[in-house]
Write a structure and sequence with these properties.
Number of domains: 2
Radius of gyration: 24 Å
Number of strands: 6
Order of helices and strands: HHHHHHHEEHEHHHHHEHHHHHHHEHHE
Distance between the termini: 38 Å
Shape: globular
Largest sheet: 6 strands, mixed
Structural class: alpha/beta
Number of helices: 22
Strand order of the largest sheet: 4-3-5-2-1-6
Length: 457
C-alpha cells in the first residue's frame, strides 16, 4: 500500500509536462482567446475549435455542447423550475442555438429564468448583437456557439457563488503582492469551472510563474528526448521480460504499437500510467490539469509566463533513479492503472492487499480534490504527509521530489516580492511545495513576509 500511496505524491509536487491550448497555436479571432481555456477545460469543445471554428455548427456538435452544459448546470444542485415553458425551435441558427442553451438553464429555478430565451441570454451577456441586430436567423458558427455556452455556464456559476476555489495564499512585501496557488497535477472531481475570484486573480496578474514554462517548445522537446533511449537499447533491455510484455499489452490497448512503446524509458511510461490511473468518470474529456489550465488562461490574455525550474531539471529527477527503482516504479504504476485487472495469479491475501491499496489511492485523490475545490488548506495540510515523509522517507523518488526544490521556489517568490514598485504576480506550483515546515508559505513567513490564506468569497 505504501508503494501505491507514494506514487500519488507526485500529483502535488511535479509540474505537468504537456502544454495545452497556447494562444499562438491557431488563427482564432483575438476576442475569443480570453475564454478558450474555460470552455476547453469544461469539455464544451475540443481541438476542433481550431480547425472548425468558423464553420456552421452541426446538429451533432450542438447536441454534444448542450449535453456538456446540462452536466455542468446539474452540479449546481439548483431546485427544478416549477414552470413549464413552451416548446422552442432548436436548430443551428444563432437563435436556435440560444434556444437550446436556454432550455438547459430553464430546467432549474435560476433568478429571472422565466423570461423569453433571447432576453434571458442577453441579460447574462451570453450573446451580444452588432448594434442593430442579434442576427438570430443567421447560421451559428461553432465558435459562436461555444462562446455562448461558455458565458452561460460561467455567469450561472458566478451567480451562485460557485466554482473551484483552489489552495490559495497571498504574500505581500515591499509593496508587491504574489498569489500562491498550490496545484494538484490532474483533472478530476468536476474541477471546472474555477470560481470567479480565482479566475480574476489569474487574469489580473502581471506575471504567471509555474514549475515549468509550458509554452517553451525547446524545453518540451528536450524533455521528450530525455524520455527515450538514445544509446541503442530499448525498454526490453532494462526490465524483466514479463513486465515488458505487460507494458506492451497495456500500451497496445491505448493505441501505441510495441515498436513505439519500446523506445520509452520505464520512468516515462510510469508517469503516463500515473496520470491515467488517477482519472475517473468525472475527468473532463480534455483532461486539463490545474497548472495547465492556469497557464492557458494566463497566456491567452497575454500575461507573460515564466518557469521556475527547467524541463531538463525535472527530467533529471527521474533520470537519476536507479534501474531497479525505475522497474519497480513502472510495475506499481501499471498495476495502479490496471486496477484489479492486474491481480492475475496473486494469492487471495495479495488480491485483498491490492484492492485495499487501490481504494486508498482513489479515496486520497478524492479528498485532495475536494480540499482543493473548497480551499480547505488545513484539511489538505493534515492529509498530505509531507513533513512525515521528509523526516522518514528512504524512497528514491520521494527524496528527489522534495530535496532542494522548496528553497528554490521560495527564492523565486522572494525575488518577485523584493522588486521596486508595486507588482502583482501569481506562482502556481505543486501544492505539496506550499505546505509543511519547509514549504514555500512557511519559508516566506520566516523571511518576514505576510502570507495568509485568501479569504473565501
Amino acid at each position: 500500500m505504501k508503494k501505491f500511496f507514494a506514487l500519488l505524491l507526485a500529483l502535488g509536487l511535479l509540474g505537468s509536462a504537456v502544454p495545452v491550448m497556447a494562444a499562438e497555436e491557431a488563427p482564432l479571432p483575438a476576442w475569443a482567446y480570453a475564454q478558450i481555456a474555460d470552455g476547453y477545460s469544461m469539455g464544451l469543445f475540443g481541438n476542433e475549435i481550431y480547425t472548425e471554428h468558423s464553420s456552421v455548427i452541426t446538429q451533432d456538435q450542438l447536441d454534444a455542447l448542450t449535453e456538456q452544459v446540462a452536466g455542468k448546470l446539474a452540479l449546481l444542485n439548483m431546485p427544478a423550475n416549477p414552470e413549464k415553458g413552451e416548446a422552442l425551435v432548436i436548430d443551428t441558427t444563432r437563435g436556435g442555438v440560444l434556444n437550446a442553451l436556454y432550455q438547459e438553464a430553464a430546467a432549474y429555478d435560476f433568478p429571472n429564468i422565466n423570461t423569453d430565451p433571447v432576453s434571458y441570454m442577453t441579460s447574462l451577456g451570453a450573446v451580444c448583437g452588432n448594434g442593430s441586430s442579434l442576427m438570430l436567423d443567421r447560421p451559428c458558427t461553432l465558435l459562436e456557439a461555444a462562446i455562448f455556452a461558455n458565458r452561460l455556464v460561467l455567469e450561472l456559476y458566478d451567480g451562485q457563488n460557485a466554482g473551484s476555489l483552489g489552495l490559495l495564499w497571498k504574500a505581500e512585501g515591499s509593496g508587491n503582492t504574489l498569489y500562491l496557488l498550490g496545484s494538484i497535477h490532474t483533472d478530476r472531481g468536476n474541477l471546472y469551472p474555477f470560481h470567479k475570484q480565482l479566475r480574476d486573480i489569474i487574469t489580473s496578474a502581471e506575471l504567471a510563474a509555474f514549475e515549468l514554462d509550458f509554452n517553451s517548445q525547446e524545453g518540451i522537446e528536450e524533455f521528450s528526448a530525455m524520455q527515450m533511449y538514445s544509446d541503442g537499447t530499448t525498454l526490453k533491455d532494462h526490465i524483466s521480460a514479463e513486465l515488458y510484455q505487460e507494458v506492451v499489452d497495456a500500451m497496445a490497448l491505448l493505441g501505441m504499437p510495441e515498436e513505439q512503446t519500446a523506445m520509452f524509458k520505464p520512468w516515462a511510461l510510469a508517469n503516463s500510467f500515473t496520470a491515467l490511473s488517477v482519472q475517473d468518470e468525472t475527468t473532463s474529456e480534455n483532461a486539463m490539469a490545474i497548472d495547465l489550465y492556469v497557464n492557458a488562461k494566463a497566456s491567452n490574455v497575454g500575461i507573460p509566463v515564466e518557469g521556475i525550474e527547467t524541463y531538463a531539471f525535472q527530467g533529471s529527477i527521474f533520470e537519476g533513479l536507479s534501474e531497479e527503482y525505475q522497474e519497480n516504479y513502472l510495475a506499481v504504476t501499471l498495476a495502479s492503472f490496471q486496477g484489479m485487472d492486474a491481480a492475475g495469479d496473486l494469492s487471495e491475501e495479495e488480491k485483498a492487499e491490492l484492492e485495499a491499496a487501490l481504494k486508498e489511492q482513489d479515496a486520497a485523490i478524492g479528498r485532495w480534490m475536494d480540499q482543493w475545490k473548497t480551499r480547505d488548506i488545513e484539511g489538505f495540510a493534515n492529509d498530505y504527509p509531507k513533513d512525515d515523509l521528509q523526516a522518514n522517507t528512504t524512497d528514491e523518488l520521494n527524496s528527489k521530489l522534495f530535496e532542494g526544490r522548496d528553497p528554490n521556489m521560495a527564492a523565486w517568490a522572494d525575488r518577485f516580492l523584493q522588486q521596486e514598485g508595486s507588482h502583482t504576480g501569481l506562482m502556481t506550483v505543486g501544492a505539496g511545495h506550499m505546505i509543511g515546515k519547509t514549504g514555500v508559505v512557511q519559508r516566506l513567513r520566516d523571511m518576514g513576509y505576510t502570507v495568509e490564506a485568501v479569504p473565501l468569497p
